[in-house]
Amino acid sequence: MNQCMKTEIAARDGDLRILLLLGIANWFLFVDHVPHNAVSSLTLRNFGFSGATDLFVFVGGYAAAIIYAKKMVERGSVVGATRIFKRLWQLYAAYVVLFVIYVDLIGYVAAQTAAPDIIAEFNIAGFIDHPIRTLIRGLLLQATPLNLDVLQLFIVLMAFLPIVLIGMLRWPTVTLAGSAALYVTARIFDRNLLSFPEGDWVFNPLSWQLLFVLGAWFALSGARQARLIRSMQGLPALRIAALLYLLFALVITSAGKLPALAEMVPDSLLSAFLPNDRENLAPYRVLHLLAMAFLFTLAVPRGWRGFRWPVLQPLIKCGEEWLAVFCAGVFLSFAAHFILITGPNSLAMQVLVSAAGILMMTAVAYYVSWSRRQDYKSALGARS
């Protein structure tokens, strides 16, 4: 690979903004996964077309591209691909453990508390009627219990990352165009992966791959594209357009929840954007996320002093250990939901379970980070 690409990757490696955004996405995913939770009204999905999942996939694609493209540039495509598949196996192993324990836990709680409604609510009814068949389907990523769909989506996207990176390192524009073509084809012909026992995936991988690839493209854009992006950031008109679009998205999203506001917006306009097409990743969701990312990079430069603020350290740590935090968040969201449906479902209790869940997720992140450092020190000691 040429020296220019090495320089571009090195310039983006170690960007704390990525960890900060991954931490925010994990916290928002947890809060959003607790049904009937007033705290979820503060998350990203309530202020525009895109949500925490969009942010997670886009930033995840950016981060993965930086990490593994660096390995491909330094050690070759074969070595880089094997490192991706190693990480993919870790993701899948985490999913399997999470899937089995999560489903068994929900079934046990439902039986012990005589609350069968949560079985249907968490989409595990198939395990009652056909446990073995549903388990096999789950291991094949075809059964989708509630709140595990984001991890399933990310596993599928990571499986194709070697192809994406090889294309990005050689033909970035062609690779991005191919991703856009797949996105358009999936939307026009309504193509999706089948779920078990019926229906389609909640997040269509054929459509959502566009956000993942866009993240990789921005991470690995060549010198010419990087100069173009920097020049666009200096255009006041583009900043104003991005702000106006975010304001428009806020109004439309709010109109879907506030009847008084909805009466002030033409029905034809509301019907064009509501209900929000999450399954197939509507184009206006992609544009909304890109507008936010554009303004975020302007407001928060790479060397921002705020990264040293103590209040942001838990978010950055949760972004650093995003997989462990995500897995913990899945269990904690179920626990929070169970507490709310079996106890006093007051606003104070909703705030309490949300805050407690975030604190526990943060504790998991710090423990995993500490444990990894101990293993590293032990390995150094064994070599000396």
Keywords:
single chain; 384 residues; mainly alpha; 19 helices; 74% helix
Structure description:
It is a single chain. This protein is mostly helical. The chain has one domain (3-378). Helix content is 74%, strand content 0%. It has helices at 3-12, 16-32, 52-75, 77-113, 117-121, 126-129, 131-139, 149-159, 161-170, 172-188, 205-220, 223-233, 236-255, 259-262, 267-273, 283-299, 313-320, 322-342, 347-383. Helix 17 (313-320) packs across helix 19. The chain is globular. The protein starts with a helix and ends with a helix.
Estimate the mean pLDDT confidence. 88
The topology string of helices and strands comes to HHHHHHHHHHHHHHHHHHH
Q: Tell me the structural class.
A: mainly alpha
Tally of discrete structural domains: 1
The total count of strands amounts to 0
The main sheet comes to: none
Rg over CA atoms: 22 Å
Low-pLDDT segments, ≥5 res: none
Helicity, in percent? over 70%
Count the DSSP helices.
19
- Shape category: globular
Distance between the termini: 35 Å
Strand content: under 5%
Provide a concise account of the structure shown.
The chain has 384 residues and is an all-alpha fold.
Question: Strands, helices and their partners?
Answer:
Elements: H1 3-12, H2 16-32, H3 52-75, H4 77-113, H5 117-121, H6 126-129, H7 131-139, H8 149-159, H9 161-170, H10 172-188, H11 205-220, H12 223-233, H13 236-255, H14 259-262, H15 267-273, H16 283-299, H17 313-320, H18 322-342, H19 347-383
